[in-house]
Design goal:
Layout (H helix, E strand, L loop, with lengths): L9 E4 L5 H13 L3 E4 L11 H6 L7 E4 L8 H12 L9 H30 L9 H24 L10 H7 L2 H6 L8 H10 L3 H6 L12
Parallel strand pairs: 1-2
Antiparallel strand pairs: 1-3
Helix pairs in contact: 1-3, 1-6, 4-5, 4-6, 5-8
The protein binds glutathione.
The site of glutathione has 10 residues, from helix 1.
Length: 222
């Protein structure tokens, strides 16, 4: 049992440039939790070793251990764990229905916006050599993403944050891709509520530290 003065120590495996690691680190920052982070994945490697695969058989980042806990993977599950263990209302309410309302938007953002942006758009624009880029495929992916972002736009025109008037876990799942969305050279239809929302997130210290991170090391040049 933890004695007085015991401080929980989170250990994260994952490189700063991973969008999923960014979501996790942003959440850790918002909750003000102590952590140590080991670079892993992409140029750092280390995700195909027996030791890493024993923690996460998928060989992906992030992985989290809380003190001596079993390793956790799947960013959505990790975020919910941290929010439940260390968070409180309104970020992650204990009451089931209030929490499900936030979770509904978090899940929506993860499976629609994140998955509609990262590989279909970001990879095609930044992680594909210029000569190999497919402008028509990029246009189609941006248009498909915008049909999803129209839902966020309508919601954010009604409320300050994705799940209402308070900053919640749902904002982590939507917001962590918006730095890249607004930064890369793609056609962006006018979405004033989304832009206002992004500008608000960009004032949060934890967002600036963990999400507004250069992605230059991911760029594929040829
Ligand atoms: N569904 C997983 C996806 C994890 C994932 O695909 N992570 C990427 C980084 S965002 C990864 O490990 N890429 C390989 C690498 O970095 O070497 C999650 O949400 O955590």
């Amino acid at each position: 049992m933890a004695g007085q003065g015991w401080v929980p120590m989170l250990t994260v495996w994952g490189r700063k440039t991973s969008s999923n690691v960014q979501a996790l680190m942003w959440c850790i920052g918002e909750l003000g939790l102590p952590y140590r982070r080991h670079d892993a994945g992409h140029r750092f490697g280390g995700t195909d070793t027996p030791e890493f695969l024993a923690m996460n058989p998928n060989g992906t980042v992030p992985v989290l251990r809380d003190g001596g806990s079993e390793p956790l993977w799947e960013t959505g599950a990790i975020l919910r764990y941290l929010a439940g263990r260390y968070g409180a209302a309104p970020f992650w309410p204990a009451e089931s229905l209030a929490r499900a309302h936030i979770d509904k938007w978090a899940e929506w953002a993860k499976i629609n916006v994140t998955l509609g942006f990262t590989e279909p758009v970001f990879w095609r624009v930044v992680r594909t050599a210029p000569a190999k880029r497919d402008p028509a495929a990029i246009d189609r992916a941006v248009a498909a993403l915008d049909r999803i972002l129209a839902v966020a736009e309508a919601q954010l025109a009604r409320s300050a944050f994705l799940a209402g008037e308070a900053f919640t876990l749902a904002d982590i799942q939507l917001g962590h891709v918006l730095f890249r969305y607004f930064d890369i050279p793609i056609a962006r239809p006018d979405r004033p509520a989304l832009r206002r929302y992004y500008d608000t997130l960009a004032m949060r210290p934890a967002f600036r530290e963990h999400v507004m991170v250069s992605y230059e090391e991911l760029r594929v040049l040829d």
